């Protein structure tokens, strides 16, 4: 069964450093997403991406965040200058919406980011 | 008002019990609705989409009431393996923005 994969599973970084989180969406999916979940809190939408551009972003997704699809398979989230409060689990998801507009998203296992 | 609001938990039920989760959403223009489950420190996994006519998948039944902006999930004959957090999820803006509820924790005990 096709699945979304993410690397690394755990990333530890120093405050102020740049990190790149990587995702390989399901191969025939066209819509891609990033979410974060701070420990003990709810899943929060960051950004959606379609046709090589951002479709929607939340207020969390400020100038320190960027996304890219550098090739036909990878989808990346870059955090330019990490802060302590960026420590969270980051989930990638992908979808292939049906004609009915139902948009069932499938999630990767997540990358746990720890900022020290 | 929270965008997607769920019953506070946790729910503690014995095996075999029927349990119902409720969810309300604030944006009347929301377009599609889902229930996901999340096990501890794992990714959300799609349980079922919620259609206007209501839908059933085995022991699980989902209902949507657009007029009341209300979604429900019913689990019959609870199993130990149903223990998880159940997330109510709403799509807006053509499906490009997804809002999660805070989740309701379910514990099923032998």
What features would you highlight for this structure?
heterodimer; A: 116 residues; mainly beta; 7-stranded mixed β-sheet; 4-stranded antiparallel β-sheet; 0% helix; 49% strand; globular; B: 110 residues; 11 strands
What does this structure look like?
The complex is a heterodimer of chains A (116) and B (110). Chain A has 116 residues and is an all-beta fold. Chain A has no helices and 11 strands. In chain A, strands 2, 4, 5, 6, 9, 10 and 11 form a 7-stranded mixed sheet that branches. Chain A is globular and about 40 Å long. The mean pLDDT of chain A is 93. Chain B has 110 residues and is mainly beta. Chain B is built from no helices and 11 strands. In chain B, a hairpin with a 6-residue loop joins strand 4 and strand 5. Chain B is globular, with a radius of gyration of 13 Å. The model of chain B has no long low-confidence stretch (mean pLDDT 93).
Brief write-up:
Chain A is 0% helix and 49% strand.
Give me the secondary-structure topology.
The complex is a heterodimer of chains A (116) and B (110).
Chain A: E1 5-7, E2 10-13, E3 19-24, E4 31-37, E5 44-50, E6 53-57, E7 65-68, E8 75-79, E9 88-95, E10 105-107, E11 111-115
Parallel strand pairs in A: 2-11
Antiparallel strand pairs in A: 1-3, 3-8, 4-5, 4-9, 5-6, 7-8, 9-10, 9-11
Chain B: E1 4-6, E2 11-14, E3 19-25, E4 32-38, E5 45-50, E6 55-57, E7 60-65, E8 70-75, E9 84-92, E10 97-100, E11 104-109
Parallel strand pairs in B: 2-11
Antiparallel strand pairs in B: 1-3, 3-8, 4-5, 4-9, 6-7, 7-8, 9-10, 9-11
